[in-house]
């Protein structure tokens, strides 16, 4: 789609890719190394992707996680997928967030994806 920022990746540095998915650094990172994994096909809902597209995305998620461990040595990770406006989705091209976490990056990380970094929720 011409108005989708993820369908035109000319301005992005690709981290890893396969036949059905691609990954790149998030333009509004929650933490250093924050990566997005997207299907190549435009589809707004992760649950509407084909099983092979979901598998391709998860394969890249694992590949990117290994790369982040090697390059940045994070202490943990958050993985997130927003589906729909009510869930906070702002770009309607399915995407997975791989967010490296570092000891001390927030005072109390308990709760993880439940909103442990509220200042980074809205950008």
Outline the structure in words.
By secondary structure, the protein is α+β, with helices and mostly antiparallel strands. The chain has 1 helix and 5 strands. It has one helix spanning 51-72, and strands spanning 14-17, 21-25, 35-39, 76-80, 96-101.
- Mean residue pLDDT: 92
Number of domains: 1
Largest sheet: number of strands, sense, barrel closure = 5 strands, antiparallel
Order of helices and strands: EEEHEE
SS content category:
alpha+beta
CATH topology grouping: HIT family, subunit A
CATH class: Alpha Beta
Tell me, briefly, the overall form.
globular
Backbone CA Rg: 14 Å
Q: pLDDT under 50 segments (min length 5)? A: none
Proportion in β-strands: 15-25%
Order of the strands making up the biggest sheet: 1-2-3-5-4
CATH homologous superfamily classification? HIT-like
Number of strands: 5
Alpha carbon gap, first and last residue: 23 Å
State the helicity in percent bands.
10-25%
């Amino acid at each position: 789609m011409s108005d989708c920022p993820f369908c035109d990746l000319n301005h992005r540095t690709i981290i890893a890719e396969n036949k059905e998915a691609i990954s790149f650094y998030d333009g509004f990172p929650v933490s250093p190394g924050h990566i997005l994994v997207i299907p190549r096909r435009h589809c707004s809902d992760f649950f509407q992707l084909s099983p092979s597209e979901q598998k391709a995305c998860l394969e890249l998620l694992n590949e990117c996680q290994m790369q982040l461990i090697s390059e940045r040595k994070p202490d943990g990770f958050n993985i997130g997928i927003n589906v729909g406006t009510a869930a906070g989705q702002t770009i309607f091209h399915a995407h997975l967030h791989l967010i490296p976490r570092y000891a001390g990056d927030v005072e109390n990380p308990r709760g993880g994806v439940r909103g442990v970094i509220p200042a980074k929720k809205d950008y």
